[in-house]
Design goal:
The protein has 20 helices and 14 strands. The protein is of the alpha+beta class. It has two domains: 97 residues, no CATH class; 462 residues, PPM-type phosphatase domain (Phosphatase 2c, domain 1), CATH 3.60.40. GO terms for molecular function: metal ion binding; protein serine/threonine phosphatase activity.
Length: 590
């Protein structure tokens, strides 16, 4: 049995850890006052037992509250309570400390919103096309719906693939009423555009129903800026270039458009951002037979311009007054003769850079209308070598997996933006639908497999979702974007056979009902909205470049090898010791 002295010493020893100034109290706090603790340990255990034995009815009274509390503290449940109390106090202290701190960035809502606004949002205040709200199916071109005479339907599905990707770097755009096909501009009309290139007021103007389509997918890398910008601007630039060059073949105009895109992106912030692109323009054209053309026919506009030029050259020796009269006569005769031989046809033009792909289903067979520009491609490897670059681990200078792209201004000498283009006359009886998709689909699915998978599905939206789900089931590791364009072959055939009113070409009865393209109307509406709210600016904000120079927080895509950017600078020639080649030789130029 312990003596009172030893009990007091033991109590004093325990108080050194759990008393008011003890280590445990400083960490977790005390469950009782120092006085209570002192009484609890000074009281003899034997005294409590004797009192309880003398009067059993007072057994509960013999157990003082302090003694019970002391015993509870030594039990497992008491230990848990004490720990939870300490955690709660620590949490309160941390909360108070946070509230006492001052963060300048959160001083005002305006400062915070300004800090987190993106370069695209700021540029949209000077260029309304960049601030056009997303349309249905996340359409970057805005809201576009089929008209009563539309002969195609569009379905789009996109998926970030959250198991593999933190960000979505794909964008897409489509229009049901792209610009009308211009009439031939000859003689004095060659310097006059078919319609105003600048966006006009929409008061009293109706959007022309053209049944001409525009479809595009942009797969970004090193951030989303380039892909987002292209989704908003490429179709606007393409329409403007077509207006100014009505007699130029569309493949050449697509190349000009891609060059213009690169030039404009180079002047904007985030020069390291880039994107692959696949674009398709589906339009009605009056075409004449041409045995030298791969399609067997030629659009009437460039053919008329060529005929007039040939006639003018032959009459160059005559006097000016006579030449003017003769030229007018030649123009009229040439155009009339060509129109007699022309027929209305449905034509598809495509252009792509990088590994985004477009496939046409023709009578159940997959017909690829694009070219994969990759570092593993032999022809592209030779072109890169001829331009002074290297293919390292199937990447351009070890950086990009694609050899052609829009943007990527820091290595534009090697990664060109000139596209691969095609021209295809649609055959209504056998051409069924188009598939446009980024490499997230094509990495795990062949062209024919994709066609077979959705051929029996008439709803393009359902078909696009099926292909995206198929890619996910095949463990695709990239962002996924898939667009299906389903043709109405019967209605196309009726227009070709002149059983339906012609549409889509400048001068058609339908085109005379309005003089504004759908893209112009969308941009004009947004411009008026910005003007009304006072948000439209005359020049680019000066802080865009400064904000863009900050390190990007975007996750690099599979096309980008960030560690090799330094070796790919335009002002530094690649060295063999920078990386190990893949063993293939690259010589000459394409």
């Amino acid at each position: 049995v312990s003596s009172p002295t030893s009990s007091k010493l033991a109590g004093n020893k325990r108080r050194s850890f759990s008393g008011s100034g003890g280590l445990l109290n400083r960490m977790f706090g005390s469950s009782g006052s120092p006085k209570d603790n002192e009484n609890a340990f000074d009281k003899m255990p034997g005294d409590a037992k004797s009192d309880a034995a003398a009067d059993p009815d007072k057994k509960s009274e013999a157990k003082s509250p302090t003694v019970g509390q002391s015993r509870d503290e030594t039990s497992p449940s008491g230990e848990r309570k004490r720990r939870s109390s300490g955690v709660a106090r620590a949490r309160d202290m941390l909360s108070n400390a946070k509230q006492s701190l001052h963060f300048p960035s959160s001083s005002s809502p305006e400062t915070k919103s300004e800090k987190f606004s993106t370069p695209m949002q700021k540029l949209g205040r000077t260029d309304p096309a960049l601030s056009v709200p997303q349309g249905s199916l996340n359409n970057s071109a805005g809201e576009s719906v089929p008209g009563p005479r539309s002969t195609f339907r569009v379905g789009v599905t996109e998926d970030r693939n959250k198991k593999c990707r933190r960000t979505m770097e794909d964008t897409h755009a489509y229009l049901y009423n792209f610009l009308s096909t211009p009439a031939p501009a000859v003689g004095a009309d060659t310097t006059k555009t078919t319609s105003d290139s600048a966006v006009q007021s929409s008061d009293g103007q109706a959007v022309v129903e053209t049944d001409n389509g525009y479809f595009a997918i942009f797969d970004g890398h090193a951030g989303t800026f380039a892909a987002d910008w292209c989704g908003k601007k490429v179709h606007v630039l393409l329409e403007d270039i077509i207006r100014k060059n009505p007699n130029t073949p569309i493949p050449e105009l697509l190349d000009q458009t891609f060059t213009t895109v690169d030039q404009q992106l180079e002047k904007l912030p985030l020069k390291n951002s880039g994107c692959t692109a696949v674009i398709a323009v589906l339009r009605w054209e009056d075409r004449i037979p041409n045995s030298q053309s791969a399609t067997g026919s030629t659009a009437i506009a460039p053919a008329t311009a060529a005929a007039v030029k040939a006639a003018s050259d032959s009459d160059s020796g005559t006097t000016e007054s006579v030449n003017s009269v003769q030229q007018s006569s030649v123009i009229s005769q040439s155009e009339a003769k060509l129109r007699e031989a022309a027929s209305r046809q449905r034509v598809l033009y495509t252009a792509n850079v990088g590994d985004a792909r477009i496939v046409l289903c023709r009578n159940g067979k997959a017909l690829r209308l694009s070219y994969d520009h990759k570092g593993s491609d032999e022809n592209e490897g030779k072109r890169i070598a001829g331009a002074g670059g290297l293919i390292l681990n199937n990447r351009v200078n070890g950086v990009l997996a694609v050899t052609r792209a829009l943007g990527d201004a820091y290595m534009k000498d090697l990664v060109t933006g000139h596209p691969y283009t095609t021209e295809t006359v649609i055959q209504p009886d056998i051409d069924e639908f188009l598939i446009l998709a980024c490499d997230g689909l094509w990495d795990v699915c062949s062209d024919q497999e994709a066609v077979d998978h959705v051929r029996s599905v008439q709803d393009p939206q359902q078909a696009s979702k099926m292909l995206v789900d198929h890619a996910l089931s095949r463990f695709s590791t990239d962002n996924l974007s898939c667009m299906i364009v389903r043709f109405d072959g019967q209605r196309v055939q009726q227009t070709v056979d002149r059983k339906a009113e012609p549409i889509g070409v400048e001068g058609d009865p339908g085109s005379a009902r309005g003089n504004m393209s759908e893209a112009d109307a969308i941009v004009q509406q947004q411009k008026e909205k910005l003007e009304t709210s006072g948000q439209l600016l005359d020049r680019v904000p000066s802080d865009i470049a400064e904000e863009a120079s900050e390190p990007s927080q975007e996750e690099p895509g599979p096309e980008l090898n960030v560690g090799a950017v330094e070796a790919a600078r335009k002002d530094r020639k690649p060295q063999p010791e920078d990386a190990v080649t893949d063993g293939s030789s690259h010589g000459g130029s394409q």
